[in-house]
Amino acid sequence: MKQNVPIVRVALRSAPTLWRCEPSWSWTCRPLADHLLWCVLDGRGVLEYADRRHDLHPGVCAVFRPGDTPRATHDPHRRLLVFGMHFSAVPTAAPDPRCGEVMDRELLGMLARTSDAAYQRKDELGMHQAELCLQQLITLVWDAVRNPGRSGGDAAIDEIARLLRQDPGRVWSVAEMAQRALLSRAQFTRRFVARLGMSPAQYLIQARIDRAHQLLTESGMTVTETAAALGYTDVPYFSRQYRQRTGRSPSQDR
């Protein structure tokens, strides 16, 4: 059964830490008095808690709750780089299991560095920014726990979907999308539908209509200009697709 993601109120209990573990480092934690966010940014090791074992590598993150007693070791030749912070939370911010792998390593590292730098400013805005980063990091861990095992192919499909939304007026082909994902057309289409609930062609149409609505309501562009900008050479066809997707004509929304 999937856990409901809590809407938590958090307060920092310690400064964010970002440290490279010493070669002889090991960790045997006393029962925690508060929550602890723990994120691996580099290196290799092993984490144990509650008779569970997790191999540590970049992207593995955990949120521990009060009373937890985690233990960890690492490879002294591939020393861990860990970001962490102690905090209070109402209700608990810890998922079960505590640990998951965040696939977006770039976002993970950016949030960790931003939190650390913001806190070091020691002003009210910096503290607020550090807490916002903490909340986002907690959300990433919950997502990793609830949706484990995202493959490289899934990440590629997410990236292609982002590109379609970002530039829907471009001429896209399924063959090009599949090539970008390093999949056959059939594999790509099947996995795209499984992940996003519609075919690549239908997703592109929806992205175009979403962008058309924004242009018509915010930019002052005409219906003809909007259709052309989004790759439509037939304005009546564009209008039919727009009405099918929104229930209104383009001229009504302009």
UniProtKB/TrEMBL annotation:
Pfam families found in the cross-reference section: AraC_binding, HTH_18
Domain (HTH araC/xylS-type) ranges: 158-254
Alphabetically ordered keywords of this record: Activator, Cytoplasm, DNA-binding, Transcription, Transcription regulation
Recorded superkingdom: Bacteria
InterPro entries: AraC-bd, AraC_XylS_family_regulators, Homeodomain-like_sf, HTH-like, HTH_AraC, HTH_AraC-typ_CS
Name of this protein: HTH araC/xylS-type domain-containing protein
The organism of origin for this protein: Kribbella hippodromi
